[in-house]
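User: I'm putting together notes for a lab meeting next week and I want to include a structural view of one of the chains we've been expressing. I don't have a solved structure, so I'd like a prediction I can at least talk through. The sequence is below, exactly as it appears in our construct file.
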Amino acid sequence: MQKKVKEKPFRQYITPVLLGLRVYRGLILNLCGVKTSFFCGHKLTYNCNLKCKMCPFWKHPIPDSSLEQEKAILRQIYNSGACGVAFEGGEPLLRQDLEEILAFSRSLPLHTSLITNGTLLKSRINEVAPYINGVVYVSLDGLEKTHDTIRGVRGSFKKAVEGICAAKQKVPVTINTTVIAENVDEIEGLVELAKELGTKISVAVAYEYSNTQISSMVNREISKIANRLFEMKKSGYPLANSSGYFKVMAKEKKWQCKPWTMINIDPHGNLVLPCYVHNDYASSLSIFDRGIKSALSGFDWKKIENCHKCNLHCYVEPSLVLSRDISAYMHWAFHISI
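Assistant: Thanks for the context. Below is the predicted structure for the 338-residue chain, given as structure tokens.
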């Protein structure tokens, strides 16, 4: 067991500034033609205790990497120039060594966040909170009945809300919501819930996985909810997305995807290029064989430079940063929502 991280009081104020400066460094490098990632989404496991309709990973569980392998992966992420990492799954809280993984990530140092379905959060938040200097993202995809249906397990909504209430006492919490046809009428209700719970909420539109069960929505439905969310944001609701993202979502703003800004690494240290949308979750490019920097510089990005296949904020937001969208820059660099 590693020692708990003890930061001096001023660190809580200076960390966002340092993160912003490192994002700015990445911005300069990218503008100079050097493909540099800002953040990394690292799936610690494909194992999960839910069976979500929009997610394919729980259907294909693979053995988890060891703790030492995870440390090697994190060293690679840090050496690539990335500012931070968001641990996801599957369900990362299923890993009993999560505390050690988070502690090592923060010690490098990396801006360390956690993405979870929230059902195990209440029981484990005391263990993991000392090592999270980023955000805990909890997935809620509808109000109680709808959420439980989408997630495939009864009672998951209640447990997630309990987890949010426990976690927000110790770390910043943001609700993650994926908009699909089944929950589009409840998105405003979820924004209201986030306000009631005292958390932020981030909204994204699901894309059509090749092996999942979701209902698609026509563009006019997406535009309608995007415009409504933008109005709610201007009215003071705690929407974490940048204003630029909602304009993209509503097809009112053109953007060029730059997926290398948000890299994805699977449980075995394979770099998913160019992204999960095009890659279909399959990757044989080990970061240990080639290295992240080399892989990014050697990939032919021209073949997807005009891609608008998804509206996933993890790709849209950093791509907007490179397009000099001030709202996206403030969102990613300083966690300030404008």
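A couple of points you could mention at the meeting. The two ends are 40 Å apart (CA to CA). Residues 210-214 have pLDDT under 50 and may be disordered.

User: Perfect, that's what I needed.
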